[in-house]
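Example 3.
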Amino acid sequence: MTDHGSVEHESPDLVGLLTGELPRDQTLAAARHLEGCAKCAHELADIVVAHAALRSSSRVSGLLEEDEEDVETAAQHDGDRMTALLPPLSPLDTTTPEAGPHPETDRSGGATRRQRARLLAVAAILVLLVVGSVIAISAGSGRGGPTPVASAALQPIEAPTSASGSVSVFADGATRSLTVETHQLPQPAPQRFYEVWLLDPTTRKMLPMGVLSPSGGGNYSVSAGIMAGYSAVDVSLQSNDGDPAHSETSVLRAQL
Amino acid sequence: MTGSIASRIALDDQGALEEAYRAYGPAVRAYLRHFLPREEVDDVLQIVFLEVWRSRSRIDPARPFEAWLFGIARKRAIDQLRRSSHEIVSVETVRELVGPDGEDFADRVAWSAELRGGLSKLPAEQREAIELSYFSGLTQAEIADRVGSPIGTIKARMARGMHRLTDLLVAEGEAT
């Protein structure tokens, strides 16, 4: 194989070669050329990763494709529902940065509205986290605070039978705040921790709420719509291994 | 790009979560829509990003964020199918969602999302030519007709765009 260096030569259409647009004779000629031309072979190698990713992506896109009407209807449905789920938005003005420019937002007003609706949905999640935590902390620390809409005792499963705890659920509009307290849970081994989950015992569906603090308590929040799909609270012992799934080692559980 | 989104989320940066939602929300939604009824997709989509936020302390910078994100989406889709009262779930759906085939499919969707992120960084004319070629199935001659540019220009745009895209994807791969 040679490098043509300063010798002028005609490069084959490498993109056309990869996309199968070249006729038979040009394809064979390109192959012969590539056998003897290091520069073109190197150029082909340079674009083959993009080609492979694009081909893979186009196949995936074909599988995931929805018809336009379906997408538009769903997007409208998406925007309406998420807007309806929003809590009071005033905190967003100070905590949420402006959305940066994005190709999709430049194409149509509809896309911009959908983007905004989705951003607002994320903002809603963030506000629920912050506001819910504040509410839960207030509820947990103050006497005469809000009355829980549900509460239950945490019962040991695999923990020592002396371990116990309680769960209280507070309502504030569309937000549900959980206050979890535990007592006499063994200190977890290094690189292990306790995590709180919502659980639907019938279907085994689980939603992680967050890590239990080393002091054995925690405050968590979630929208009422999501909370409605769960009827129990589970505390698991997790390994710090990057796997977000439940470890299947439950130590305490409460049926709300 | 994605590595920095992941690391910023891990550092409690709420703006990075918004950025992730803006970048990957549509792809996650399309992925969920492939398996779930439309009326269930929105709730699961919210749950996926809620879980991203709640699990941010466990983000592994050594692993591509897209793979982690779509791994969560896959698990939540399985949860939803188990929970909901669908009487019939096709064998194809189960194959694409559960087990090694499901992981492979989620990985491919994740890679596709990574690619879309790379495409968004290309100059608009290069991106347009590449998208028309690979996602609309047009030849370079047809693209030239469509956009009203000489075919030589289209070939040059595609070649430059493909080089740049490879660089972005390789850099992304090396960053994780």
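The CA atoms of residues 123 and 161 of chain B lie 8 Å apart. DSSP finds nine helices and no strands in chain B.
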